[in-house]
Design goal:
Layout: H1 3-8, H2 16-27, H3 35-62, H4 87-110, H5 115-134, H6 144-148, H7 151-189, H8 193-204, E1 207-208, E2 211-212, H9 214-242, E3 246-250, H10 257-264, E4 268-269, E5 286-289
Antiparallel strand pairs: 1-2, 3-4, 3-5
Helix pairs in contact: 2-5, 3-4, 3-8, 3-9, 4-7, 5-9, 7-8, 7-9
């Protein structure tokens, strides 16, 4: 981008093209247009948890890993994998198994250079550039994919990957702790395998009538929050790179009072708006370039 373009970008003048851009964005249910990416990420996370839940239930009920069934057949060394002398030993063995599955299926798979974080970030750059174009700012700008390879964006992506990992790690740590507690309580109470398996399954959760429950719900919230966060950071980074000084807010359809209250305080200094959106896990609002209107 030329120095002249940078100098003129601070508070650009409103244009008819930008007014049309804003009108279309406000008419959409989700201004960021990353719903499909969010849904894919949520489905993948929930799918991994469902696989672990199924394997754990199979182990407890069908394979009798704790040796609780008086007539259970011992037809392989792995059948009673957690059948130790004391209940604490059984729980500890189960905890190690669960933590390994959570590490492999969730943290290793989605805690690094997460493709969904990257795709949301790229969409944020694309939307930022589209809006700048509507304001006649930044002509000759590099393609979004090329812009994303710039150090300013790569450094930001690394931070977003780390944030996503910490959220996932918090979820898996809580799952392991809660499952350990349920196993210890169930064994101490003399519960049968099906009861213990049911209590453990409730922690990992399920999608009931289209609504994610327990850990499944937390996985869904993480996918929503982290991808909207990535998208909004990308917008701000690209606008700041273009010299934009202030930003406004595009509220999503059905925005809550919390989001409306935030929007009423606009405009915001672009460099100070990072992390403000999303305001809550279901927030679909985004920033937009402020034109002084």
């Amino acid at each position: 981008m030329s120095a002249a373009a940078n100098a003129d970008a601070g508070v650009p003048e409103q244009t008819s093209a930008h007014e049309r851009y804003l009108e279309r964005a406000r008419d959409r249910d989700e201004p960021a247009r990353i719903r499909s990416v969010r849904q894919q990420y949520a489905q993948r996370l929930r799918g991994r948890l469902a696989d672990i839940r199924s394997a754990l239930r199979t182990g407890i009920v069908e394979n009798d890993v704790f040796g609780l069934q008086t007539e259970a057949l011992v037809d392989a060394p792995s059948t009673r994998q957690f059948e130790f002398t004391t209940d604490p030993q059984k729980v500890e063995a189960a905890r190690r198994w669960l933590e390994k599955q959570l590490e492999n299926e969730v943290l290793t798979e989605y805690g690094g250079e997460n493709q969904y974080i990257e795709r949301s970030y790229l969409k944020g750059i694309e939307d930022a550039q589209r809006e700048l174009g509507a304001l006649n700012v930044g002509s000759g700008e590099a393609a979004a994919s090329a812009s994303m390879r710039m150090p300013v964006h790569q450094e930001q992506l690394e931070q977003l990957y780390s944030r996503n990992l910490e959220e996932l790690r918090g979820m898996t740590d809580d799952i392991a702790r809660d499952v350990r507690r349920e196993l210890a309580d169930g064994l101490a109470s003399g519960d049968n395998p099906r009861t213990i398996a049911g209590d453990v399954s409730d922690i990992l959760g399920k999608v009931d009538d289209g609504t994610p429950r327990a850990a499944m719900n937390r996985a869904t919230m993480i996918s929503r929050t982290e991808l909207m966060n990535s998208h909004n950071w990308a917008r701000l980074k690209e606008w700041e790179r273009a010299g934009v000084e202030k930003v406004d807010v595009i509220l999503s359809n059905g925005a809550c009072e919390q989001c409306w209250a935030y929007a009423r305080d606009a405009p915001f200094v672009a460099s100070e708006a990072y992390g403000n959106l999303p305001i809550h896990p279901n927030c679909r609002c985004v920033h937009t370039v402020w034109t002084g209107d």
